[in-house]
Design brief:
binds 1,3-dihydroxyacetonephosphate, 253 residues, 8-stranded parallel β-sheet, globular, alpha/beta, TIM Barrel
Length: 253
């Protein structure tokens, strides 16, 4: 059966000393989580966070982005190969902040997913609609396009390495969480698209995380939904106690 996962996306926050302290504090609360935990620090802290967590079961490290290019004259970019060489095992691709501020479209994102997989990184691929799409009722079309154009060229074997995250853009950092019904509807829809493309077995084996103002006080209800397999946490992942409480809110696998 599929894995429950709680991933913390720190975004562009923390200094090195804060990052180390945050990991230390989290590990003091939870050095052997029952749920799979993934920490996504900024690039400069991948190595220390990998060092701090490498001997622990159930804790992995993700980068927040990777280049769509393999190597070469791309000043300021970080390749999937570089990320893999740090010991990180995951990379977030297609976060709405990358789509919005860095104009990453599905073509670029499909190339990033390919580079991640070629370097043995598991992509955590994010989808989610804008507030207008939700209000106009076309959110399913948006999500279907984000999935099909960037992912559905993958083979079944490749698709098995992908973790999905549904993050409605109107819920990110706003304190407006999707209701469990709204989130579950989209998660079930995503799983049905996976089933149509790759079959029921793969669809049922794929973890689909919810992200968007997920906090200790709403995580239990969200994670109780049949098709919600954990969370991708922003703000609350920067506070060890809150992140720990969210990890504890996951239903047993
Ligand atoms: P918040 O939890 O801060 O809303 O962020 C969610 C997110 O974007 C995680 O990737």
């Amino acid at each position: 059966m599929r894995k429950n996962i709680v991933a913390g996306n720190w975004k562009m926050n923390t200094r090195l000393d804060d990052a180390v302290a945050l990991v230390d504090e989290f590990l003091n609360l939870c050095s052997e989580p029952q749920t799979s935990v993934i920490l996504a620090p900024p690039f400069p802290y991948l190595v220390p966070v990998v060092e701090l967590t490498k001997d622990l079961n159930n804790i992995g490290v993700a980068a927040q982005n990777c280049s769509q290019n393999a190597s070469g004259a791309f000043t300021g970019e970080v390749s999937a190969e570089m990320i893999a060489s740090t010991g990180a095992e995951y990379v977030i691709v297609g976060h709405s902040e990358r789509r919005q501020y860095f104009k990453e479209d599905e073509l670029i994102l499909s190339e990033k997913v390919n580079k991640a997989l070629q370097n043995d990184l598991n992509p955590i691929y994010c989808v989610g609609e804008l507030r207008d799409d939700r209000e106009n009722g076309n959110y399913k079309e948006v999500i279907e396009k984000q999935l099909t154009k960037a992912l559905f060229h993958l083979s079944e074997l490749e698709m098995r390495k992908v973790i999905l995250a549904y993050e409605p853009v109107w819920a990110i950092g706003t304190g407006l969480t999707a209701t469990p019904e709204q989130a579950e509807e989209v998660h079930a829809f995503i799983r049905s698209l996976l089933a149509d493309q790759y079959g029921d077995e793969l669809a049922n084996a794929t973890s689909i995380l919810y992200g968007g103002s997920c906090k200790p006080d709403n995580a239990t209800e969200l994670f109780a939904c049949e098709n919600i397999d954990g969370g991708l946490i922003g703000g609350a992942s920067l506070k060890a106690a809150e992140f720990h409480a969210i990890v504890n809110a996951v239903k047993p696998s």
